[in-house]
Amino acid sequence: MKPLIERKISMLRSHWYIWLFPVIALIITLGMVRKYFEEQGPEISISFPEAANIEPQKTQVRFRGVSIGTVKEVKISEDTKNVNVRVLLKKEASQFAVKGSKFWIVSPKLNIQGVSGLETIFQGVYIGAQPGEPTAEYDEEFKGQMTLEVTDPMENTSTYQLETNNAESINPNDPVSFRGLNIGSVTSVALSKTAQTVVININVQNKYARLIRVNTGFWRKVGIQAKLGLFGSEVKVNSLDSIMQGGVELFTPEPAGEMAKANHKFVLLPSPPKNYEKWNPVLN
Question: Which of 12, 51, 264, 269 has the fewest beta carbons closer than 10 A?
Answer without folding.
Answer: 12
